[in-house]
């Protein structure tokens, strides 16, 4: 065997060759010389690539299914590659037999939650064409996803073929193997083949099923399509493409900080229920400091702990920015120098750890979604929408209505309120830093949603726009149109919604109503605009898919961040002292949503190109208005404002300091008193005249 050379690809796609010297007892497994790496080898193979795993795991049952999924769940396997012996109707056809596929809400929906055979006998099968010789190693089975029916397969057989005519059963010595299937409709079950089977086609042949149901299943197939192992491809970037648990995430963030200490800072905004810190990576040319006029941007991932792609993308993003900044990539250098970036890769680390322990194909659809306390953080922020809409209906004087910075209700802030510690930490973070733009990274679909997420009057779904509808549509389009998978016109829908009809963007409330969303809270309680990005059909993609997912999302992540520089920005200052004015209200004509200046007086108003009349008001100052033109270039229009104190405000400040009132102020105050006296006299005279007219009318 000494002439066999094993070529190993590490995570950076660097090739290393080792002669095979130590045969291991099972199925062509070998230990490479001078390493602790196990690799699967064919005795006839020479100078080929092999899938790798630590030799310490060779006795673990999952080691022999280390091949990645073929891609039924991720849609890498096309509908045309899946066939069946029969099916009940189109909505339950073979193309619906994909792991974790979700059904529509209607009974008999055309998008149902599994493949279901028309007949109840042992001659039914679901067949997958891998398109090339593949080393099949395992099958993962799941029952039908439905709120109307309970259907799952309890036992099944597996056969393989190269021509679909002659089928070879999966054997265990001299007996055909009958695999254990499901005991419920949602929990995925892994069945490892006794020996890897090399073929082009594979069939799942149900033998028994839930006695009160019928033959229905969702599946994933594990297999290496180069027969010898897994070849990682998809990007030239040398990043750490794997799933990181809490300790590994912290280690990676620390390594990025050590590599780029001048532009990075790690800080924590709080802890999860189980005490795991919510770490944030800050990237800026002056980390730890808000710079006057520099906008603050954030990405949040992992609100649902089992939707893991966003977490890995943000870890890759911080690596990438560090590497490219050091290389002098001018796009990245400009982004770092002109923006303060905050990356929160895991808002729900407790949930992630639960899903991570099961693994990418076995976590199911919902394990790890909620916090440890069972709270869905996507519905856990204060519902300010209802407060706003109730005020609009009840208030007769529309001038008294507010349209921004809605206060949080007292009952929500109490210790007894069912608010997750993670949610409280994020709200405090939002209130501390004057964020301008954000995105909330999710998984399980391919679409970008924008506020409002909640419908008025609790309708199940209805288009519910904000006053900034046009800009939110722009933000959503920016991400969706640059994402490789979303922008593919030939892609199929993930589950039960065809978002291609909407160019892969949708008003959140028009998809399904979400009371208490982070997007709506961010818009109504702070200055920050936020969208939700559903990154992939698969909530927990296999590690082998991460390089491709990174390449698909890299440009989208960068170009979306750059939108923080679109619109107008400026500083509101006191005309006399040049001091910044905090909490000044910035109003844009014809857009009924205001923002406020930050503690240094700086502000950022996201706007599409156009001409705008902007008015700034602040307590104790006269309002100021100016016209601001937003151009198409990727930099903001500067609109600074200098406000003049009102005489009353000047008087208050002088009296508070115990000073003397200047003559010009005395004169100004006298003029104001005279003006006020004249106005009140006119009002009294009008009332008297009105009373006299009514009296004459009554006398006549």
UniProtKB/TrEMBL annotation:
Family named by the database record: Belongs to the peptidase M14 family.
Organism of derivation: Cyprinus carpio carpio
Protein name: F5/8 type C domain-containing protein
Domain of life: Eukaryota
Pfam families attached to this UniProt entry: CarboxypepD_reg, F5_F8_type_C, Peptidase_M14
An example Gene Ontology molecular-function term: metallocarboxypeptidase activity
Cofactor (UniProt): Zn(2+)
UniProt keyword annotation of Repeat present: no
């Amino acid at each position: 065997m000494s002439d066999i050379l094993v070529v190993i690809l590490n995570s950076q796609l660097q090739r290393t060759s080792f002669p095979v010297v130590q045969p291991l007892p099972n199925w062509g497994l070998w230990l490479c010389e001078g390493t602790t790496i196990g690799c699967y080898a064919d005795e006839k193979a020479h100078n080929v690539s092999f899938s790798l795993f630590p030799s310490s795991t060779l006795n673990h049952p999952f080691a022999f299914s280390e091949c990645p999924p073929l891609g039924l769940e991720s849609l890498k396997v096309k509908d045309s590659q899946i066939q069946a012996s029969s099916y009940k109707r189109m909505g339950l056809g073979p193309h619906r037999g994909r792991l974790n596929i979700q059904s529509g809400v209607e009974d008999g929906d055309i998008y149902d939650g599994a493949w279901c055979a028309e007949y109840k006998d042992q001659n039914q099968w679901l067949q997958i064409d891998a398109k090339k010789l593949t080393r099949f190693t395992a099958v993962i089975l799941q029952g039908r996803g439905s709120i109307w029916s309970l259907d799952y397969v309890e036992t099944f057989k597996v056969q393989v073929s190269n021509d679909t005519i002659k089928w070879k059963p999966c054997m265990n010595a001299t007996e055909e193997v009958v695999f254990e299937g499901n005991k419920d409709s949602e929990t995925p079950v892994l069945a490892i083949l006794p020996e890897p089977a090399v073929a082009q086609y594979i069939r799942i042949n149900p033998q028994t099923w839930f006695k009160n149901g019928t033959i229905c299943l969702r599946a994933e197939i594990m297999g290496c399509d180069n027969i010898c192992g897994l070849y990682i491809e998809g990007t030239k970037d040398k990043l750490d493409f794997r799933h990181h648990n809490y300790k590994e995430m912290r280690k990676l963030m620390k390594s990025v900080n050590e590599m780029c200490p001048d532009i990075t800072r790690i800080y924590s905004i709080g802890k999860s229920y189980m005490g795991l810190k919510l770490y944030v990576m800050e990237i800026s040319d002056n980390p730890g400091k808000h710079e006057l006029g520099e906008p603050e941007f954030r990405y949040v991932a992992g609100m649902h702990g089992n939707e893991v792609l966003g977490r890995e993308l943000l870890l890759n993003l911080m690596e990438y920015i560090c590497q490219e900044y050091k290389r002098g990539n001018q796009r990245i250098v400009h982004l770092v120098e002109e923006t303060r970036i905050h990356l929160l890769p895991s808002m729900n680390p407790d949930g992630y750890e639960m899903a991570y322990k099961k693994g990418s194909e076995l976590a199911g659809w919902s394990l790890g979604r909620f916090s440890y306390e069972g709270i869905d953080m996507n519905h856990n922020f204060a519902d300010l929408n209802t407060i706003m809409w109730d005020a609009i209906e009840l208030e007769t004087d529309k001038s008294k209505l507010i349209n921004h910075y809605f206060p949080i209700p007292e009952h929500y802030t109490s210790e007894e309120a069912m608010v997750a510690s993670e949610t409280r930490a994020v709200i405090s973070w939002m209130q501390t830093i004057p964020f301008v733009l954000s995105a909330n990274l999710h998984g399980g679909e391919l679409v970008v949603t924008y506020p409002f997420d909640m419908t008025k009057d609790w309708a199940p779904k209805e288009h519910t726009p904000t006053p900034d509808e046009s800009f939110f549509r722009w933000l959503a389009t920016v991400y969706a149109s640059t994402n490789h998978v979303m922008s593919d016109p030939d892609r199929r829908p993930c589950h039960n919604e065809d978002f291609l009809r909407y160019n892969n963007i949708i008003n959140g409330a028009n998809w399904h109503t979400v009371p208490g969303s982070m997007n709506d809270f961010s818009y109504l309680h702070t200055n920050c605009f936020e969208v939700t990005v559903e990154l992939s059909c698969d909530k927990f993609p296999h590690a082998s898919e991460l390089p491709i997912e990174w390449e698909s999302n890299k440009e989208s992540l960068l170009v979306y961040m750059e939108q923080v520089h679109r619109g107008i920005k400026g500083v509101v200052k006191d005309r006399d002292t040049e001091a910044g004015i905090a909490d000044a209200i910035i109003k844009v004509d014809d857009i009924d949503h205001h923002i406020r200046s930050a503690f240094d007086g700086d502000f950022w108003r996201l706007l599409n190109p156009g001409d705008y009349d902007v008015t700034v008001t602040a307590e104790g100052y006269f309002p100021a208005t100016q016209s601001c033109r937003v151009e198409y270039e990727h930099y903001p229009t500067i609109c600074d404002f200098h406000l003049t104190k009102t005489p009353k405000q000047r008087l208050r400040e002088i009296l508070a300091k115990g000073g003397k009132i200047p003559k010009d102020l005395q004169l100004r105050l006298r003029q104001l008193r005279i003006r006020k006296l004249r106005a009140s006299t006119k009002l009294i005279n009008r009332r008297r005249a009105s009373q006299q007219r009514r009296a004459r009318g009554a006398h006549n």
